[in-house]
Amino acid sequence: MAHGEDGAVPDTGKSFDSLYAVNPQQALAIEAQKMKAFKKRVDDLLIALGDSEASPDRMGEGRVSRAQLGSAEFGEAQYLYESYTVVHDELEKLSKVLGAQIEGMGLAVHASRVGYDNINQDVRERMRSINTEVASHYDRERDPFVKDESTEKKSDKEAGF
After folding, report:
1. Kindly report the CA angle at 155 between 152 and 157, in degrees rounded to 5?
2. What confidence tens digit (pLDDT) does each residue in 92-122 have?
3. How high is the pLDDT of residue 1?
4. Residues near 81 by Cβ (< 8 Å), separated by ≥ 6?
5. Which residues contact 101 (CB under 8 A, 6 or more apart)?
6. How far apart, in whole angstroms, are the C-alpha atoms of residue 106 and residue 41?
7. pLDDT tens, position by position, 40-97
8. Rounded-to-5 percentages of helix, strand, coil across the chain
9. Torsion-angle region of residue 70: left (phi > 0), alpha (psi -120 to 50) or beta?
């Protein structure tokens, strides 16, 4: 047998994974100019979001009142108003969370460039605050990429794992 009598591949003493012969320092080195350019793009997005009608502060300004949609006897107007309110509320949340995520990405880019140990305590606290805020809006049941653990465990048992 080519691989030995027991079918095992002999150990050559070398790792054949995809990171073999990669210098970790070079792999982790980040070009400062590219990081600065990315941070500038993130900052520009924050400014653009803040100045737009989609900013978290402006999203609530243009709400339609129930009375603008017709009389109380007009049932479809009530349904339309309730649907409008749900959509508007969700857009406000999206705007707020998106702004926080963009700000968090900018802070993370800065931290990766200068090193986490070299950023101010107030920046660290803001990063934690953003993480908490974004996590509070996360709904696992609405995430299409979450695997159903019960189905996964069942398939593992069927496969003999």
Report:
1. 110
2. 787 788 888 888 888 888 888 888 889 999 9
3. 47
4. 64, 66, 69
5. 130, 134
6. 9
7. 787 777 677 667 776 666 666 667 777 777 777 777 888 888 887 888 788 778 778 8
8. 65, 0, 35
9. left
Which residue type occupies 36? K
Three-class secondary structure assignment of 80-149: HHHHHHHHHHHHHHHHHHHHHHHHHHHHHHHHHHHCHHHCCHHHHHHHHHHHHHHHHCCCHHHCCCCCCH
Terminal CA-CA length for the chain: 29
Task: Confirm if 134 and 104 have CB atoms less than 8 A apart.
Answer: yes
What pLDDT score was predicted for residue 126? 94
The token pair that represents 87 in the structure block = 């959509």
What is the token pair recorded at 90?
């969700």
- Please name which of 63, 65, 52, 55 lies closest in space to residue 87, comparing C-alpha atoms: 63
